Amino acid sequence: MTNTPAPAGTASTAGRRRRTPRSLAAALLGGVLPLLASLLLLAPTPAAAATLTEVTGFGSNPSNLRMYQYVPNNVAARPAVLVAVHYCTGSGPAFYSGTEFASLADRYGFIVVYPSATRSGSCFDVSSPQALRRDGGSDPVGIVSMVRYVLQHNNADPNRVYVTGASSGAMMTNVLLGDYPDVFKAGAAFSGVPFGCFATTDGSSWNTACANGTIIKTPQAWGDLARAAYPGYQGARPRMQLWHGTEDTVLRYPNFGEEIKQWTNVLGLSQTPASTDRPQTNWTRTRYGGTGDRAPVEAISIQGGTHNLPLPGMAARAITFFGLNGQAQ
């Protein structure tokens, strides 16, 4: 028998079985690529990262501060509020980008407010008579207006409002706890001075004696200064966490001990620590009035530390002290 040739334009059976590797690859890609495209179309689009936004018209603002807020994508239904106050020469956006508070807000769902000073030098007013009196004027009034704006517009929890800051912002943390003990539940001051230590009456904003650590008072005298900011107030007083480096040459280390005197007295605590430990090699932590993560006063001395606080990891310790790390209040 003779083989009959396949009709023109058709392939023999044997020919259909002998596809080349190139043709097989093309066939596979022709099936896989449409499938991948359809899966990509079905995949959810990642949510855009939260951003820092400026808020204007937030209320009484006698010293023309600017307000920035960070609301994380996973903000809690009833969020806490943290005010994070920058250092001299800084700004709200600089403190946002240079610290870990926003990333911690992403993790735990609280809102961060970053005030910005607008005067020359970008320091906060912690020295004028107006600043050291409740509703007296100047920066504290503007910052509290920011807090009230967030409470009103973000369904935030007025019982969980906190403040932290570095250098000038640490001094403002002390001032706000004295002026508004009914607004703030706790503070964390990185390289600051006691409430009233920087007071001046000559219109200047710098107190050399305080900066050099030469203003020494009794616990009672320091406590009286803080209490005088809100005469007649009998309510609960905020807790305080204090940080200071032993080699701080800007706001010298003796201010750390004076802050401890002040806030233990304000809270009616013994000057003797309830506990002392070393969370890290060069840290010494003393706690007053309690021994847990949220003791009434917690003080961390950084051996060899300079004015450059907070360092990485310290912000998380402040969040734990506030109780914003997901633990029960």
UniProtKB/TrEMBL annotation:
<dbReference type="InterPro" id="IPR029058">
    <property type="entry name" value="AB_hydrolase_fold"/>
</dbReference>
<dbReference type="InterPro" id="IPR050955">
    <property type="entry name" value="Plant_Biomass_Hydrol_Est"/>
</dbReference>
<keyword id="KW-0378">Hydrolase</keyword>
<feature type="compositionally biased region" description="Polar residues">
    <location>
        <begin position="270"/>
        <end position="285"/>
    </location>
</feature>
<feature type="region of interest" description="Disordered">
    <location>
        <begin position="270"/>
        <end position="290"/>
    </location>
</feature>
<dbReference type="InterPro" id="IPR010126">
    <property type="entry name" value="Esterase_phb"/>
</dbReference>
<dbReference type="Pfam" id="PF10503">
    <property type="entry name" value="Esterase_PHB"/>
</dbReference>
<protein>
    <recommendedName>
        <fullName>Esterase</fullName>
    </recommendedName>
</protein>
<keyword id="KW-0732">Signal</keyword>
